[in-house]
Structures are given as C-alpha cells and as structure tokens.
Amino acid sequence: MEAPIPATCLCLLPSDRGDALSNSFVSGCIAVWCALIAAGGCATAPSSGPTAVSHHTLPTLQGSYHTVRPGETLWRIAGSYGLDAAQVAAVNHLPRTTEVKVGQRLFIPLPHESSRFLWPVRGSLGRSSAPHGVEISAPAGSLVRASRGGRVAVATEQLVGWGKTVVIDHLDGYLTIYARLDQVLVEPGTDLRQGTPIASLGSRALHFEIRQGVKPRNTLALLPER
After folding, report:
1. Is it true that domain 13-42+54-60+117-222 has CATH number 2.70.70.10?
2. What's the pLDDT tens digit per position in 48-76?
3. Which CATH number applies to 63-109?
C-alpha cells in the first residue's frame, strides 16, 4: 500500500494562524514540501528565469472530451463538469438532453469560473490509501482537469510513492493534489481556468486530494454529487 502524501511535507501551520493562510504562507508551505521530496523530482513555480521542467502544454484547449460509459446520463456527466445538460447538449448538437449512448464521445467546454470544486476526471471511485483523498479510475488517456481555477505550484516527474504529480494553489488557502499521472501537460507558474486539462491518465487510478493549507479536507464531501 502506498503511503499518503504526508501533511508534514506541506509544513506545519502555526497555531495562531488558524485557517487564514496568506498566499505567501501557502507558497512557503509548498516550497518546504518540495524540498523534502527526493532530489531531482520536483519543480515549483520559479520567481524568474526559465523552468527546468518541460511539458506538453495545451494553452489553447477550451475543453476536453468525455466518452459515455454504462449507467451515465447527460445530466450527471454535465453536473460533474460544472455544466448543465442543456449546455452540453447544445455544443454537441444533441436533439434531446435525455439521449446519450454508451461509447459516445462528448465535447465538454470549460465551465464558468466557480468557487466550488469539480471532479478532476469522471470515473469509478476506489478506496484511497489516504483517508481524506479519493481514487478515480478512468480509461487510459483520460484528461485530468483543474478542479478549480488557480496556479500550478508544483509539477513533478517523480514524487516518492506517487509518481508524476501536480499541485494547484487556488490562491485562497486551498490546494488540490493530483497524483499518479501518466503525462503532465502544464508547467509550474501556469495560471489555469477551472476545467483546464492539466494531465492525462495511464493505467493507474488518479489520486486526488483537497487541502486547506496543511489540513486535509474531506475531499468527497467538497465535490458535486455524482
């Protein structure tokens, strides 16, 4: 069983600060976390100069695709992406919002910016080795999207026990962690809209966590109903 990403790697929150984290404090937490990662694996947002990490970025992609699986409805698919069924039906030229077929490929546009967290990928849930995170299995090649808008704080090719990982700083004290990725599509320092593809999956399930500063939150409770 793989060990969860330790809270101590995100630095210790001073007791007199509570949950009111400043952006600079969160940045410091991320820097400490990265310093504790095995040498050579991690890249953080640089203050100046070029980044050493090279990824295949998708700067103009304004959405992603979803392949309909058994038991899915357009209403539930759209809701998990922060959209309504009529929006998805319209962009895909569907005559009715109740008709989708297994295997059908739907284009999912970026949602309007929201303060709520969205599912980073649509798939089946498994048991997480980290008590506050979720494991999401999806077909190989599925795109992982930013659960909320923010800035890429960490993009690592090798986080011990987790492989390729992205951390997004939402600039309000919240962080989201996306681990066990197959391909990273963003670079440190990239500003992202909610729903922007940040990575793709391979054969492993996505490990996803929401944290408020160093505190792991109940990730499942903060995501829309499936």
Report:
1. yes
2. 333 333 344 434 457 778 888 888 889 88
3. 3.10.350.10
